[in-house]
DNA sequence: ATGAAAGCGCTAACAT
DNA sequence: ATGTTAGCGCTTTCAT
């Protein structure tokens, strides 16, 4: 029962007219007589004719499809970005293909290649954590495929970029903790070869300096996942008696740290105030609800897609690149109310 | 600088040979002389030749691409399923296009149409909550596109299916609560036109009956999202004094219910024991950690993709359908320890 | 107002 | 061992 989809040629044969007439009739070409148009359109409707997108794309070298390459779909931030991208994309007649690299460099290379092979009109990329080679990005340029980086941008490649102001976000969160009375704040940091790791750490230290607080390297612990926190639990607990605040590079790290401290008899936020980064839905589920900075994923996605369309449709000069920066906003909840008891 | 990608024709012209020779040389055809092969392959490598997947697919009417249509990417269950699908797919030389419907029927129709237009080799679908018309699924069959439903299957369409045993999972969770001493258990239920809603409720009532507990309709509250729980908070609080357990249709609903109860002075699990369904990462983040049943998303994804490949590659009879069922497993945590205090 | 022909990039039957 | 041709489905110039 695997019936081949009907083609323009089929319609032409059945109706006893030429393929070109069918093609024109279907798109209301003025040359075609109303009678023929009527005939063709009605028939096409009846047999549920659908143009073959492959053939269309091959002919026009335009797929109306863009590729999205991201580390992990499951993170709230990335899925907000995807929603932003998709809403703009669909509105402008583009389809989006999502590829997740699972933070795997090899997969990133393969995914990009597959997108290029399938002649997508443009690509939106957020780099994997393990990417240190950039020739696969350079190849895109050589192939004439427009690219916009977002969030995890590649500094070595000149291109449009859309980012959250990680430095400022970290600074805001840290100043908030200081405002709540914290004097000795620990930072749970991401790897420093990642821009977000570097910028958030620098925002953190900048806030400390501004308020003339000591910036103790011992208080900077490298862990940026839930698992990493549990692996470093001993280090955190050893320092816990000295500190009164934690700023974590993301929400899951912040939440895991709260759990580690609570299991060791500390009360949050009474003994130690905590702030995270990202504002996913976890922040509300956490106990106590987590103070964090909101990253505006949806806006970032929209902006990235708009920039990409600018390049695809040639409304922007080819070598003219732009960087859009979104400043995060503090979302204050219970976890940062130093000294307060929570039920 | 938008250089068109190089084609076989280009190579042929430059090397002064015919396109067919180039094509054959590139795929090690035995007819071609080693010298020519060497020449062509080296050159192709040098200019970074890549076949145009569009042209390939058009010619072979085989795209080596499958479509995934799911309600929401962000849910842990669905992203596990995607990982399972992708791992099998890549291993067998298929690419996957992910479409999220956002539980929107119209979007589901559009996404499926786009996939068919792009001639994917097969489609994996988990239905949107708001889908009550099924002609768009029937059209797939008419177009000869193999489909496998998973999790949110469509009863009205005969096809391969991969599901979690929701009835049994709900029964296991409910019996667990009963075993912990619960006598009056509330159920937070999903809409009954959804199979998962129906099956989980029936698993719940079946466990009650088995243990000769009363099944009170007042204890069945319709809410299956975090927001819905807050909307029904008054109803839940009104009944809270009577009950000693809650079985929720999913984890976020269970967690929201715990929060509502806690904010109203109830202690979990001392006063009321709670169990959820799904075992996403939230279950660990919740306070107290949530007892729930694990849905085996990764396995379901793998199984669904394997079934789909069977149909695509014709190793399975066309009208021969299979249903694979995965039984969830209980993951016992703190939220269900009725009578116990948690710090 | 309609049709014939060519071509998007590729491959495979059919020459030579 | 290599080249010529035709065709996948579609559109569009160029006839008529």
UniProtKB/TrEMBL annotation, chains A, B:
Tell me where on the tree of life, at the top rank, the source sits: Bacteria
The cross-references to SUPFAM superfamilies, in alphabetical order and at most eight, read:
lambda repressor-like DNA-binding domains (SSF47413), Periplasmic binding protein-like I (SSF53822)
Sorted UniProt keywords: DNA-binding, Transcription, Transcription regulation
Annotated HTH lacI-type domain ranges read 6-60
Under InterPro entries, the record lists: HTH_LacI, LacI/GalR-like_sensor, Lambda_DNA-bd_dom_sf, Peripla_BP_I, RNA_pol_sigma_54
Citing just one GO molecular function, the answer is: DNA binding
Gene3D superfamilies, alphabetized: 3.40.50.2300, lambda repressor-like DNA-binding domains
Q: What is this protein called?
A: LacI family DNA-binding transcriptional regulator
TM spans, by residue? none
Extract the PROSITE patterns matched here.
HTH_LACI_2, SIGMA54_1
């Amino acid at each position: 029962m695997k019936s081949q989809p009907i083609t323009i040629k089929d319609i032409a044969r059945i109706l006893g007219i030429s393929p070109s007439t069918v093609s024109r009739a279907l798109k209301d070409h003025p040359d075609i007589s109303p009678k023929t148009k009527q005939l063709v359109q009605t028939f096409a409707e009846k047999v549920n004719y659908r143009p073959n997108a492959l053939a269309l794309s091959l002919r026009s070298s335009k797929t109306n499809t863009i590729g999205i390459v991201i580390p992990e779909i499951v993170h709230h931030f990335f899925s907000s970005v995807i929603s932003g991208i998709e809403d703009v994309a669909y509105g402008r007649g583009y389809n989006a293909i999502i590829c997740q690299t699972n933070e795997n460099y090899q997969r990133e290379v393969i995914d990009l290649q597959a997108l290029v092979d399938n002649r997508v009109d443009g690509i939106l990329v957020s780099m994997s954590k393990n990417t240190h080679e950039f020739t696969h990005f350079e190849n895109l340029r050589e192939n004439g495929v427009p690219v916009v980086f977002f969030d995890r941008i590649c500094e070595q490649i000149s291109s449009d970029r859309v980012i959250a102001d990680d430095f400022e976000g970290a600074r805001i969160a840290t100043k908030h903790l200081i405002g709540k009375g914290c004097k000795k704040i620990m930072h749970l940091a991401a790897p420093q070869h990642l821009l977000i790791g570097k910028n958030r750490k620098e925002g953190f230290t900048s806030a400390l300096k501004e308020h003339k607080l000591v910036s103790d390297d011992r208080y900077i612990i490298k862990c940026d996942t839930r698992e990493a926190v549990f692996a470093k639990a001993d280090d955190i607990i050893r320092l816990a008696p000295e500190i009164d605040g934690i700023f974590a590079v993301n929400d899951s790290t912040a939440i895991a740290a709260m759990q580690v401290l609570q299991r060791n008899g500390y009360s949050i936020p009474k003994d130690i105030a905590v702030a995270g980064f990202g504002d996913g839905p976890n922040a509300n589920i956490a106990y106590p609800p987590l103070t964090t900075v909101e990253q505006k994923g949806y806006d970032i996605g929209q902006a990235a897609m708009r920039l990409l369309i600018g390049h695809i449709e040639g409304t922007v000069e080819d070598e003219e690149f732009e960087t859009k920066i979104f400043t995060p906003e503090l979302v204050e909840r219970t976890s940062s109310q130093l000294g307060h008891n929570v039920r």
